[in-house]
Amino acid sequence: MLLYDTLDRFEKKFAHLKKKGLRVNGLKMIDPKRKKHVIDISRPLLFDNRLLPKIFEGLDVKAVVSGDLPLEFNIDRTKPDWQKKEYVWAPERFEKYVDRCSDEIKKKLGDPKMTREDMLSALCFGDYKAHKEKTQLLIKEGKLPNYQKN
Asked: Which of 33, 128, 137, 145 is the most buried (most CB within 10 A)?
């Protein structure tokens, strides 16, 4: 019952973000052995992730991007093993998108004074620099493919 109370407090605290596309899907068990739950949410790509916590009252917040993606993120997912050749969330894709659509992003996020770095962090899971460093490390370890320019 306490988990549902936490979920209820999360929904109330971030209710204002529903207008911006946030959807709270509920609680999700990700590890039955350890009985680990997360708060499962979805949001559009064009959303300021800096407004959401990674953890809320001890529960991880796991977000899924919903809706259509801009052309920078389009990948042919019908190809066999496409995940071994392409990384949807490659930092370079965010950079290209921000460079191409900065005016639209600023307008949609409601901040005409956003810098390029602000937009990248807003769209890129809340911290662009951390995402880029983590991606580069995973590429070096062979866990993610290098970004391929189209």
From this structure: 128
